[in-house]
User: What shape does this take?
Amino acid sequence: VQLQASGGGLVPTGGSLRLSCAASGARSLILSMAWYRQAPGTEREMDASITEKGTINYANSVKGRFTISMDNSKKMMHLQMGSLKPEDTAVYYCAAAKGLKSTPAGLVHNYAFWGQGTLVTVSS
Assistant: This one.
């Protein structure tokens, strides 16, 4: 699976932005896709995920502000970002999982495929 993220840019506080992730390759095997962010000096963290069955999860920090979506063919995934804050400034990555991995918390999607990242900068 190859992923290509796009849509980042400079936006003022309170503004909106729509990120897109184009998937190619063995899309039919994708179980789940997700958006992660990584700000300078921090670890990569998940903002939102969506499974092939439509189950969606959001990080508490983005609930009510961000909306994740994926088309039925799993060819495109989007992240509609609203009410943006300066702390949302980060490189955003899309990721895809074709399998599960065991963790102390149980089985979770193994996001083994990553896009190149797109920079979102929210000005104060």
Q: What stands out?
A: The chain has a mean pLDDT of 95.
